[in-house]
Amino acid sequence: MACPDCFRGGKAVGDPTGETTTLYGLSTYVASPPSTSTSQSTIILFTDAFGLKLVNNKLIADAYAVATGFRVLVPDIIPGGPMSPDVMPIMDKVMEPVSTFDILGQAARVFHTLRALSYFGPFFWRAFPSSPACTTPCLDYARNVKADLPPGAKLGAAGFCWGGYQSLNVCAEPAVAGGTERLIDAQFTAHPSGLKLPDDLVKAVTTFKTPVAVAQAENDFATKTKLVEDSEALIRQKVGPGNGEDGYYYEVKIYKGVAHGFAVRAKPGDAKEADGADEAKAQAIEWFKRFL
């Protein structure tokens, strides 16, 4: 599941405009829509491994709320807490090119690798995305939000990296255990991690005909693009082109020349990743506006 880009990237510049409160027993960042919005639909944003410790996730929630007119909830839901952003510059050191014959450089790389392992080793021990320790609280949270929505309001799910597994997983779950009503009314994920493909993507689309959008990084080493493309082809064989035929909606966009994490943590100075992040944000906003 993991790749170096899971723990690298840039910190966004900006001041979040939402507020943090407690919802369903979890600290939750709430990005509210403009006062002119009349919609009561809600989006749950399941973050990357850095959670609410990384301001990028809050700023994305703010952008979604303003552009869609929907409330956006970002729960602090990663078991044991999110990864510290302090690991990002350490991973940059690990990934710096070093000559084979540069003894001091190789020694420094080993040192920084061990430092990085001290961060993400414990993280994956407690918070591997497909483990029940992660999936159960995410499902419970989504069901609680859905149950409290007023009549006619809809629920969307967005997920990045670690959270991409969660947002797709809840698409295959009913609103109530044992029920037949879908839990999620529209889903967007960018560079999801930990997926079992094609099964997880097929289930997300077909179980309850949930509209599913995917932003896939071309150079993603956590979830191989070929597997995503093959999964999309299988879905097309099963249910059609995803344009509403028989009630199925899905889209997969491949973002050329970018790596895992681009939609949340575009690397400083990388214009292609910055543009890709903007395009992925627009993809998500249009998808949610269409279906929520």
UniProtKB/TrEMBL annotation:
Any GO MF annotation of the entry: hydrolase activity
Gene3D superfamilies linked: alpha/beta hydrolase
Highest taxon of the lineage: Eukaryota
Protein name (record): Dienelactone hydrolase domain-containing protein
Pfam families the UniProt entry points to: DLH
Domain Dienelactone hydrolase, chain residue ranges per copy: 27-107, 152-291
